[in-house]
Specification:
The complex is a heterodimer. By secondary structure, chain A is α/β, with parallel strands linked by helices. Chain A has 5 helices and 6 strands, in the order αβαβαβαβββα. Helix content of chain A is 60%, strand content 12%. A 5-stranded mixed sheet of chain A has the order 3-2-1-4-5, with helices on both faces. Chain A starts with a helix and ends with a helix. The relative contact order of chain B is 0.18. Classes of the chains: A alpha/beta, B alpha+beta.
Chain lengths: 291, 134
């Protein structure tokens, strides 16, 4: 027993206070996670309805020439938008997203495309900057509760770049919310808009009255669709962050508990050894006196 | 068919605002008021700024809408709007905000910014009007 009981006690104290912190963080993330999850689900109906109206128009057989739908023949410049968290202590959440972003970056570069990199969140920004990537725009003021205005703020300049043909494609790297247990980092093409799946069904609902004309509605609706997609991705990102943090903090708390058990055991052993030694000394001393 | 009712959903990006049955809906379309009764033809229309009134047997529910879309299919009415609030949830409009917007509007010349300011101003005015119950 190299360590003395006093030192072990000190370590137990410090581990327990760390455990208190991780436990609290776990609880905080749990409640934030629930709200973030609700937000992801609440965004669903709007997206579904937008999809439906867009499909109704696109499926009506109208051929439309809209810039946001236009697939460029030769893609020269790609914009990669990475969504990360502002804070750490959430396990591999940020690292996984950044890795996927770097892979995508390399992939696009291999295809000979110029890349414009935009990053949301302090973590991604700091890491990529440190590794020597050139970041053209970084957004760090998105909170745990992303609003529709936040999405608008991110997307508007991007849409402008796309319509002015400075950018031919927009890819977003974000954690896709499949369920509470799975939010894999995903690459999604934001622009040009891929026609919604339902549109392929063709002129089912062509008997709609459109006011103003279908083309006008679609021209106005598509940017909203892009913003809504962005909003959903922001909500997913914030929910994913909370899930990751909860898991990380839960395992930290478990580890701390384990460590405390272990240290307590060591402490008891050290204490007993000390007592034994003291008794041995007393007995030894008494025996020496009796001689 | 006279007993038919409408199923009305008012949805904003952040959350569904209202869902329920109704006998009629009046909404501010981009070119004037539009009224919808059961049996309406399928329609998609752009909305302006103003009040959506959902009437059922118990009375009317009122919502403030700032642009968006209205879709009618069968007897289902869907209102999509980035800004949709129940009138009861509206915050009071401060006169100084109105004055500030008015001032900014008179000072800007960029048509895109002007359009946005005008929309902001119309929205505030509409909120004000709705709150006063006119």
């Amino acid at each position: 027993m190299a360590e003395r009981p006093k030192e072990i006690r000190k370590r137990i104290k410090s581990v327990s206070s760390t455990k208190k912190i991780t436990k609290t963080m776990e609880l905080v993330s749990t409640s934030k996670m629930k709200r973030a999850q609700d937000r992801v689900q609440a965004a669903g109906p709007y997206t579904a309805k937008l999809d439906e109206i867009i499909s109704a128009i696109a499926g009506g057989g109208t051929t439309l020439n809209l810039p946001l739908l236009e697939k460029r023949e030769s893609v020269k410049k790609v914009l990669i938008l990475l969504l990360t968290a502002n804070r750490g202590l959430c396990g591999g959440f940020n690292a996984n997203l950044i890795r996927l972003c770097k892979n995508t970056h390399a992939e696009q570069k291999a295809k000979g495309r110029a890349i414009r990199l935009e990053v949301v969140g302090k973590k991604g920004n700091a890491t990529l900057k440190f590794q020597g990537y050139q970041i053209e725009r970084s957004i760090a003021d998105i909170t745990d509760k992303p609003s529709f205005d936040d999405a608008r703020r991110i997307v508007d300049p991007i849409v402008k770049l796309f319509t002015s043909r400075e950018i031919d494609e927009v890819l977003v790297v974000y954690p896709h919310w499949k369920s509470l247990g799975a939010q894999p980092p995903t690459v999604k093409k934001l622009l040009p808009i891929e026609p919604p799946a339902a549109a392929a069904k063709g002129g089912v609902k062509s008997d709609f009255i459109f006011s103003p004309s279908a083309a006008d509605i679609l021209a106005d609706l598509l940017p909203r669709y892009v913003t809504q997609t962005m909003y959903t991705m922001l909500a997913m990102s914030s929910a994913g962050e909370q899930v990751a943090r909860r898991t990380a903090m839960k395992s930290a708390t478990d580890n701390a508990s384990e460590m405390i058990t272990h240290l307590t055991r060591t402490l008891n052993r050290a204490r007993q050894a000390m007592i034994t030694q003291e008794i041995a000394e007393i007995v030894g001393g008494a025996a020496a006196l009796q001689k | 068919m006279s007993q038919a009712t409408l199923q009305v959903d008012i949805i904003s990006p952040e959350k569904p605002v209202y869902s329920g049955a109704a006998s009629s809906v009046v909404a501010p379309a981009h070119d004037g008021q539009v009224g919808i009764l059961p049996g309406h033809a399928p329609m998609v229309t752009r909305l302006g700024i103003g009040e959506v009134r959902v009437t059922d047997s118990a009375g009317a529910a009122r919502f403030a809408i700032r642009q968006g879309y209205l879709q009618v299919v069968g007897n289902k009415v869907v209102v999509l709007s980035e800004d949709a609030k129940a009138i009861a949830d509206l915050k009071g409009v401060k006169p100084e905000d109105l004055a500030r917007l008015q001032k900014e509007l008179s000072e800007t010349t960029d048509p895109a910014i002007r359009a946005k300011l005008q929309a902001d101003l119309d929205w505030l005015k509409a909120c004000d009007r709705l709150l006063q119950g006119v």
